[in-house]
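=== Given protein ===
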Amino acid sequence: MEENKIKKETWINDEIRAKELRVIDEDGSMAGIMSLDDALALAEKRGLDLVEISPNAKPPVAKVLDYGKYRYEIQKREKDARKKQHNMQVKEIRLSTFIEGHDLQVKANVAEKFLRGGDKVKVSLRFRGREMAYKDKGREVMNQFADLCSEFGQMEKKVSLEGRSLSMFLVPKQDKPRPKNKKKPAETEQNADNGNN
C-alpha cells in the first residue's frame, strides 16, 4: 500500500507527461533543461531511473537516480517519523473525599507512571450523597494529590467543580531549559592568570 502511495505522488520514466524537464544528475549537479526523450536517454545511459521530483515547477524538475533506493529512503524516513510521534492519551484517576494517605500515594504512583509515559492525566473526585457538604475537604485531597505528582507533572487545568465532581488535569513536565552564559572552567582559569600578571 505504501508503495502505491509513493508511486502516485512520484512519476518515473515513461509515466512522466511533461515534454520539457529541468534535469538534475545523479551527483546533484544541474544537467540543464532538456526534452523528455533526451532525459530518458540520459537516465538509461547511466542505468538509472528518471524521477519527477517537482512536478509543479516551470519546467518540472526530474532527477536521475536509483528509484528503488529512493523509495526505500522515503519509507525509512516515514517509519522514523512515526516512531518519534507520540499520541498523548488522557488517562483518568478517580479519588474519593475521605481517601486514606496510603491509597492516595498508590494512585499518585499510577499517575506518575502515566506522566512519565507522556500521557495527560485527568483526576476526578465525585461527591456522593452528603459529601457535597465537604467540598473544601475534596479540594484539599486534589491539591495534596497534585503535590504528590509535582515531580513529574504540572497542573494544566486547576481544580474545578462540575456538577457533583471536582476535576483537574495534569500534564507531563517539560524539560527545564539550561541556563545560558555560564563561564567555562578554562575561561575562569585564564581570567585568574590575567589578574595575577
About this structure: The helical segments are 2-9, 36-46, 67-84, 101-116, 135-148, 185-196. The mean pLDDT is 79. The beta strands are 20-24, 30-35, 49-54, 61-65, 90-95, 120-126, 153-162, 165-172. Residues 10 and 33 are 19 Å apart (CA to CA).
